[in-house]
Amino acid sequence: MTRQKLELTWVGKEKRPKLEPRILLEGPKKSYHAKSRVTENDIFDNRLIFGDNLLALKALEQEFTGKVKCVFIDPPYNTGSAFTHYDDGLEHSIWLRLMRDRLEIIRRLLSEDGSLWITIDDNEAHYLKVLCDEVFGRACFIADIAWKRRDGAPNDRKIGSTYDHVLVYAKTRIGSAKKTLAEEAFNLMERTEKADSQYQLYQEPFGYDERGPFRKVDSTGNAKGGRFVESLIYPVTNPFTGKDVYPRKGRCWVYRKEEMLAMVADRRFFWGKDGKATTPMRKLFKSEAKPGMSAPTIWDDVGLNQHAAREIELLFGEKASFETPKPEGLMKRIIQIATNPGDLVLDSFAGSGTTGAVAHKMGRRWIMVELGEHCHTHIIPRLKKVIDGEDKGGISEAVNWRGGGGFRYFKLAPSLIINDRWGNPVINPEYNPAQLAEALCKLEGFSYAPSETRWWQHGHSSERDFLFVTTQNLSAEALQALSDEVGSEQSLLVCCAAFHGVSAAQASERWPNLTLKKIPKMVLARCEWGHDDYSLNVANLPMAQLEEPEPAARTSKVRKVISGQGGLFGEDDT
């Protein structure tokens, strides 16, 4: 009997955006760095990106594929408030498709031992779980953590939720093993006061054990695996009374006899204050415990939404404008478990900037993406306070934060291709030559690396394969000069407005080290040009954008451009 693969289906699932891999433009005036180093480990090359987060993820893909250790996202919960123009079925389908598109890129960005952490509520949690199973593989599911976000249930319903879900996924599973590479790389959770309080000093007939505080655990049970094992019933001599004791009826010891007797000899059992206990308790010493502890799946000790709101209020002296900000304690635990100092953390739904602030204080590199204007009104001022050491709230005291480091601010470049006033697709005039070269490098899979000595080298894909971009019409003489300079041991992709004096077939035969492509013809079919917003705030998305046939006049103009008859860089270019 064969098992069919179960998949989540929804209206429009087969539709996938042809994303434009845009370049990032740095805004030095909005970038910020500490005036001096505070420690040798200060990190300055963090990135804050302003723009649509799906396009931003695509923009990061070439440089950061396989390099992100931890992704945390707090996407819109799809409660219906953002989808007032759509019925429930369509809104749900839109949300799933937009999440799927992001999750697929996020998976590619993660390192092999990387992990994804998503906060979500009951409204979409279970559908999101199945969607993540499909994108990451069910075997890469790690946990569904319940994070307590509020103290009491809301008064507007008979049963009110006080928890959010935190879904945790790994990038890679270890062969047929149950564990994933991410789990192998996880750190233990910091010990809590509650956990440490279980260890106490207990008086015994000989006084107090010199090995220090311990906690007591039962030494009997139905044996490991929940089975009763008769061979694990044997006498153990109480060292204080000299009497033999047995497990209670229906129980057995949980240790083999030789192991049990060795532990008795090493005083690793507690026989009561007077030494007369008939069932000893195993001592687990604090001094021998792990430096941390395994994380539970219920987190009620990392702060609430109201604590996060208070953190923001203290930073800005105003009531928080974010309905459900995440507390720094929650982010601290996630980052502490999933990463080590110097690792890269990504948050593509930056919100109030908590992820970057906490990652910065904990010595991790970070990338955040935010489309809303609060990127400028809240995130940047918040990060400046962190860098200047003026943020005394959140986890600052716990990690002894004193400031330092910095970040670089970027915005997404505009679309490379726009339409002129006649509807002809042309290169966006906002692009300067360097930006055009960088954009074409990204589109062709080359690394943008202009050479100071080779005027024709704008990018490379290997030590011998290069790319050259020019807006000029190249003659056969110019192409011959290029071929001579490149040499027979190297290859050059030439992206030019046009070439004349030779056909494409003749050029390929005459200059085998050159590959010629015309712009913008070479990229017209690659992407959805001019699409600037794929946001999950879906007020501007779908229904009005259902596919419609193009007007005949426009179609003919596009064909003219593709065939080389249309304009290239502007309406006057003939």
Automatic annotation (TrEMBL):
Record-annotated DNA methylase N-4/N-6 domain positions: 68-377
MF term (GO), any: methyltransferase activity
InterPro entries (alphabetical): DNA_methylase_N4/N6, DNA_methylase_N6_adenine_CS, N4/N6-MTase_EcoPI_Mod-like, SAM-dependent_MTases_sf
EC number: 2.1.1.72
Catalysis: reaction(s): a 2'-deoxyadenosine in DNA + S-adenosyl-L-methionine = an N(6)-methyl-2'-deoxyadenosine in DNA + S-adenosyl-L-homocysteine + H(+)
GO biological process: methylation
Pfam families assigned to the protein according to its UniProt record, in alphabetical order: N6_N4_Mtase
Keywords, alphabetical: Methyltransferase, S-adenosyl-L-methionine, Transferase
Family to which the UniProt record says this protein belongs: Belongs to the N(4)/N(6)-methyltransferase family.
Name used for this protein in its record: site-specific DNA-methyltransferase (adenine-specific)
Organism: Thermithiobacillus plumbiphilus
